[in-house]
Amino acid sequence: xxxxxxxxxxxxxxxxxxxxxxxxxxxxxxxxxxxxxxxxxxxxxxxxxxxxxxxxxxxxxxxxxxxxxxxxxxxxxxxxxxxxxxxxxxxxxxxxxxxxxxxxxxxxxxxxxxxxxxxxxxxxxxxxxxxxxxxxxxxxxxxxxxxxxxxxxxxxxxxxxxxxxxxxxxxxxxxxxxxxxxxxxxxxxxxxxxxxxxxxxxxxxxxxxxxxxxxxxxxxxxxxxxxxxxxxxxxxxxxxxxxxxxxxxxxxxxxxxxxxxxxxxxxxxxxxxxxxxxxxxxxxxxxxxxxxxxxxxxxxxxxxxxxxxxxxxxxxxxxxxxxxxxxxxxxxxxxxxxxxxxxxxxxxxxxxxxxxxxxxxxxxxxxxxxxxxxxxxxxxxxxxxxxxxxxxxxxxxxxxxxxxxxxxxxxxxxxxxxxxxxxxxxxxxxxxxxxxxxxxxxxxxxxxxxxxxxxxxxxxxxxxxxxxxxxxxxxxxxxxxxxxxxxxxxxxxxxxxxxxxxxxxxxxxxxxxxxxxxxxxxxxxxxxxxxxxxxxxxxxxxxxxxxxxxxxxxxxxxxxxxxxxxxxxxxxxxxxxxxxxxxxxxxxxxxxxxxxxxxxxxxxxxxxxxxxxxxxxxxxxxxxxxxxxxxxxxxxxxxxxxxxxxxxxxxxx
Amino acid sequence: xxxxxxxxxxxxxxxxxxxxxxxxxxxxxxxxxxxxxxxxxxxxxxxxxxxxxxxxxxxxxxxxxxxxxxxxxxxxxxxxxxxxxxxxxxxxxxxxxxxxxxxxxxxxxxxxxxxxxxxxxxxxxxxxxxxxxxxxxxxxxxxxxxxxxxxxxxxxxxxxxxxxxxxxxxxxxxxxxxxxxxxxxxxxxxxxxxxxxxxxxxxxxxxxxxxxxxxxxxxxxxxxxxxxxxxxxxxxxxxxxxxxxxxxxxxxxxxxxxxxxxxxxxxxxxxxxxxxxxxxxxxxxxxxxxxxxxxxxxxxxxxxxxxxxx
Lengths: 653, 310
Fold this sequence. Notes:
The complex is a heterodimer.
Chain A: H1 2-19, H2 30-37, H3 39-56, E1 64-65, H4 90-103, H5 110-119, E2 123-132, E3 140-150, E4 159-166, H6 178-193, E5 200-206, H7 209-221, E6 231-232, E7 242-251, E8 255-262, H8 273-285, E9 290-292, E10 295-296, H9 304-324, E11 340-348, E12 356-357, H10 358-374, E13 386-390, E14 393-396, H11 397-425, H12 433-441, H13 443-459, H14 465-472, H15 478-504, H16 514-534, H17 536-552, H18 560-568, H19 571-586, H20 592-616, H21 621-641, H22 646-652
Parallel strand pairs in A: 4-5, 4-7, 7-11, 8-9
Antiparallel strand pairs in A: 1-14, 2-3, 2-6, 3-5, 8-11, 8-12, 9-10, 13-14
Helix pairs in contact in A: 3-11, 3-17, 4-6, 6-10, 8-10, 9-17, 11-16, 11-17, 13-21, 14-15, 15-20, 15-21, 16-17, 16-21, 19-20
Chain B: H1 2-25, E1 30-37, H2 45-60, E2 68-72, E3 107-108, H3 114-122, E4 141-148, E5 151-152, E6 155-158, E7 162-165, H4 166-178, E8 184-190, E9 206-210, E10 220-224, E11 229-233, H5 234-244, H6 254-257, H7 263-266, E12 271-273, H8 287-290
Parallel strand pairs in B: 1-2, 1-4, 2-3, 4-8, 8-9
Antiparallel strand pairs in B: 5-6, 6-7, 9-12, 10-11
Helix pairs in contact in B: 2-5
């Protein structure tokens, strides 16, 4: 009887053990203890593996041959028929356009464009928009786009395709797009005679580069993407159907060396891979030399290693372009509306030799439009997330994501082992464990630090702070005002925080600040994961910079080197380093003082551009840096200076 | 008395037996064709071209429109993408518009469903269905069933939304047999993994032929660069080439038709199933399925047509 009772008691104690929410036995297995003991080594290994894996991605064995997923495209089945035989020739269009452009040195010849479109028998409209410059009161810029619609002759106007050209006046700093515009006229003239269009075709000439395109798209969809009241996109008097795809033309000459296909869109969004493949396939078919990021894709006649380095550099250039989040052509603004778009940029053939004629390029566009015309649904089959190491190979998301996961995993491992170490240190007393832990965690102080660092981030948001800075320093140029504002604030925070921590928080002495440490690590990790879901390149490059310093920081007793290391990666400093590198590559022979001023100026301009991009287009690169990186940075900075009670720690040891 | 009855019964049985054999040897009395294109969308132009080409051939060989059930899932002729409206071609030379003047489509567009197809075969269409849309076959009917579209192992897709499985098809044919709705069937199918569609058949008197074996794709023959589509499938292309040489009085046998489209032409392997069919294929004229029996009544009496009103 007594034995039986004892057994029962044993059962009860087991039940109570199971009932605990935090099972104290977790984290004490053999594997866990190995991880915890050597977590720093594991973090380093994960970092190295991630970098190596990322570099491997460009290799032939990890990238795959591109292919078409969408059956409806029927790429390249039709024979290109665009020629010079009917109507005005390309030469006539080009000569006429050039004469008109020279006449208006810095403006767009709207009247001419409208009458030209009307002569081509297109439904012609123009569209006015206004930009209320956000960083200076009462400063307005106006612009006007011209577009013509070719209605599908035998179907309802429910879908459309866009062919756009940004108009650049002869005084523009960018290379001319007039040959592209003349190609568009030629194409419009040819398309007008065909009866097989199932979708409307919109021929669009935009003004002021991306601004005009953004205004037109906002007006077409009746929305506003940036801060309210900044871009007044106006109204459109004529619409076609829902836009399925768009092709933007930037052809700089009538003798074309090669066509570069540009993809990167706003916030790193990419067009569907099928559309990109379509462009490459048709360039192949019409034997037009075609490149991606100005690197030739064809692997023929190149040795293997050489081709690996070419692939790697192509992929890296794509990552760099994507990471900025700034579109590299007008196509990039379409992506947010669910419209797949790319830019075909035709570079001028310099000197003698074989070149591609505008008709070859015109037939590429004709073929693409015939294929797009065949589409029955929006692009949905192929990849939306990919990296391209070459024109005909791709790396899928399933292969490149692990690189980032390894980096973020290092942060999580660090957080996990810090927490386990802490809880095992305080496990000696059984009954009063809970009380001790809560005392040691300093929940109140930690939440104050986290909250205030995020509030600072919120205040510095690009649609709040810059307007005040420019208002305050309204006598100096905008970029200097911004640099001064953000710079002085950052320096103040960097200098003040250690003093506050040392002087005012002496009463909060604690053996270590595990909770703050773990929260910082987790926030950085989760934030990086979220960023990379949208823009892998930005997420990965940021992780490359921040993961190692973040892993080096301990929850107590940080050395001066670690603090210096962390100071170097302050978001403002990072911006400065990047700008310095770019300035150095652009002007390697500058003396040091000129170099520094130029770098500072350029950093300021970066900030202005980024702010304006945020307010007009909704680019969130700036927001990420002040809402994620800056608060995490400040919290870590606090952590390194928080007072710790060494004696108590010694005692526990 | 009992003896009498016994002999009577015996003679009746012998008689019935004799009659039965007689029926088996007798030729069919009429010909029908069920021609189905199951896929829609512009990029499936070739399937419509396939089915219209077969339609044209059987019509030329004498099956009247009233005995052809034509199901076409999409209207390629009026597709806005068609550069030459109101035509469907089956060859890039564009010599022959298979969507000519007298094409009677019985089921079109979204009417081409598995339900309608099975109801058509088994004679279970709603009573208000026009007679021209019904398969009014009897025990003397030879039926040509031609299917084309996208398929997989054991199914044929209808319209991107549903599919008929090989078992369903086999059961529908068995039901036809039990309801005495056919005499013989020639089943032809041009789709990927086509032979999977006839593997489940278990009803008698069916001869089946498929464009590819299980695990193989059926491929298209060539592209029309003006229309911008694949214009016809390989198997149908070569079958048509064969049929073009068939005249109404040709003595070409089914056996030679079953050899059409060898592997070097088709790329896929043409599959044939003969175990359900009990006649000697070399003695079955191709017109038993592709042509039509025209019932002719001979009379040896003189007819007085002088009083016939004009």
